[in-house]
Amino acid sequence: MNKDKLEILIDNQGLDAVLELIGNICFEKSEHLAMNWQDEKSAKQWDRIAYVVHATARKVATIQK
Fold this sequence. Notes:
Blueprint: H1 3-13, H2 15-37, H3 40-64
């Protein structure tokens, strides 16, 4: 992972927006696992991760204001 690129992204978009995007990626990963691999266990894990990341993004947004 390139730390500098991630830092630039956070500086330009805000940490809350980056976390929101990561949460969306987690949801997409969950959907992919469920639909293409019928891996419901892993899909549920990624769903739970997505909800936690989105909740964290909302918390961060309130702190940044």
